[in-house]
Amino acid sequence: MIYDVIIIGAGPAGLAAGLYSSRARLNTLIIEKDGDGGQIATTDEVANYPGSIENASGPSLIARMVEQVNEFGAKKVNDEIKSVELNGDIKVLKGAKEEYQAKTVIIATGATPKPIGCPGEKELTGRGVSYCATCDAAFFEDLEVFVVGGGDSAVEEAMYLTKFARKVTIVHRRDELRAAKSIQEKAFKNEKMNFMWDTTITELKGDGILESMIVKNVKTGEEKEIFADEDDGTFGVFVFVGYNPATKLFDGIIDMEDGYIKTDADMKTNIPGVFAAGDNRVKSLRQVVTATADGAIAAVQAEKYINEHFED
Q1: Cα distance between residue 130 and residue 136, in whole Å
Q2: Is the pTM of this model over 0.70?
Q3: Which of 133, 134, 163, 272 is the most buried (most CB within 10 A)?
Q4: Quick check: is 136 catalytic?
């Protein structure tokens, strides 16, 4: 069978694309290798998505999206795409289970935040450890927060967190920030900002919630444990050391920049009939709201491409 649209990935971008393409009566297939939802599936509360009501969680929001996609008849399969042939009129995707063919492909494989890589991090993610300030800052109102990283995004996110937390400390493995000088100047002027130089976090601890962390001075080798304030019971650790876009499959096939797929405003890649949407593409803001917008645009453009290149 040759599908009109195959979407790789069932996160917000992929599901939005599936909704728009299936609603346009295009024969649509969504291929997901793991579970639906991408990064948002691990988010307890989604307060910054327009219209998010009843304290919607990541899983509940995704469940609604999946329901809508199913309602309009998009087909979904669980498979991992191992190789692709995208240059012909008919695109071929070879999965671990099956081979798939389509007139257009929307790549919505997402990206994952780079972790610190220390013990306790995985267990305490969503329980004090976060990778998104705009998502989770409000949960740390009047608490103490530590930000890992020293680049532009780390410092900018740290300053954003000062609107909520009573104290924000940047933990950086070097003795100076890598962020642009203009950003650094603002940070150094902010009274709530503090800096822990030449330091890495080697372990995060807590029973169901983050309660302490062990930090190490990379120059002296000295380690110490930092505990949550007794009255607070917890603190926040926000990690901003970069992202890993899930685009390795398309290396050497699609134009990229630092591992992110390059598209125009219509989500078109350098290959006709191939689009990208969501966190895996070059963009300035990676949030659910921008992912769903990308997916919608990609699907509308895929329909337009089919109408122009294929006869009924």
Answers
A1: 7
A2: yes
A3: 133
A4: yes
What is the model's pLDDT at position 96?
Answer: 97
Q: How many angstroms separate the Cα of 70 from the Cα of each of 23, 204, 208, 256, 293?
A: 10, 40, 35, 32, 19
- pLDDT attached to residue 54: 67
Cα–Cα distance for residue pair 54/56, rounded to 1 Å? 5
- What pLDDT was estimated at residue 44? 64
Q: How confident is the model at residue 312 (pLDDT cuts 50, 70, 90)?
A: low
Question: What is each CA distance from 91 to 6, 101, 108, 247, 277, in whole angstroms?
Answer: 9, 6, 16, 17, 17
DSSP state of 278: S
Q: What is the pLDDT of residue 46?
A: 74
Residue 36 has a pLDDT of 86
CA 99/CA 93 separation, integer angstroms: 6
Return the beta strands (E) in 51-98 as ranges.
75-78, 81-85, 91-95
**Domains of the chain in sequence order:** 2-113+243-309 (3.50.50.60), 121-239 (3.50.50.60)
Is 135 an annotated catalytic residue? yes
Choosing from 132, 142, 152, 258, the catalytic residue is 132
Nearest of 241, 247, 244, 245 to residue 131 by alpha carbon: 241
Is-contact 205 212, C-beta < 8 A? yes
**If you average pLDDT over every residue of the chain, what do you get?**
94
Residue in 4, 36, 135, 279 annotated catalytic: 135
- Least Cα distance to 46 among 129, 138, 122 occurs for 138
